Amino acid sequence: MEVERVSPKSSIKALTGEEIRATFLKFYEERGHQIMPSASLVPKDPTVLLTIAGMLPFKPVFLGQEAIASPRVTTSQKCIRTNDIENVGKTARHHTFF
Predict the structure, then answer these.
(1) Residue 92 and residue 9: Cα distance in Å, rounded?
(2) Are 13 and 5 in contact (CB under 8 A)?
(3) Which of 34, 14, 32, 17 has its CA nearest to residue 78?
(4) Contacts of 41-47 spanning 24+ positions with Cβ under 8 A
(5) What is the pLDDT of residues 14-67, one digit of tens each?
C-alpha cells in the first residue's frame, strides 16, 4: 500500500530520499550516463578511514591508476561527514547513523 505524502501548504507530493536519488540517477541516465553503484563506506584507499565525499571512489581514475567503465557516469554515493562530528546530537541538523 503506497501512502501519498502531500505537503500541507502545497499540492506537490513530497518525495522520499530513495525517490530523489532515483530521479537524479534517471535524469543523467537519460542523457547518456552509465549508472554506477555506490561504493563502500569503508574505502580501499589507505589514506582515509571512511568515504567522506562522493568523489572519493573516483580518486584512482583521477590519478590515472584505473580506467573508468564509461566517460560519462553517475552515482548516488553514500558518504560520512566527519568534519563537524562534534555537533552530532547538539543541533537538529547534525545526525549520524553509527
Answers:
(1) 22
(2) yes
(3) 17
(4) 41/78, 41/79, 41/80
(5) 889 899 999 999 999 999 999 999 989 898 889 988 887 788 888 999 999 999
Going from N- to C-terminal start, the domains of the chain cover: 17-87
SS3 per residue for the chain: CCCCCECCCCCCECCCHHHHHHHHHHHHHCCCCEECCCCCCCCCCCCCCCCCCCCHHHHHHHCCCCCCCCCCEECCCCCCCCCCHHHCCCCCCCCCCC
**Overall pTM > 0.70:** no
Residue 42 sits at the vertex; the CA angle it makes with 53 and 70, to the nearest 5 degrees, is 60
CA distances to 10, 12, 16, 49 from 56, in Å: 38, 35, 25, 11
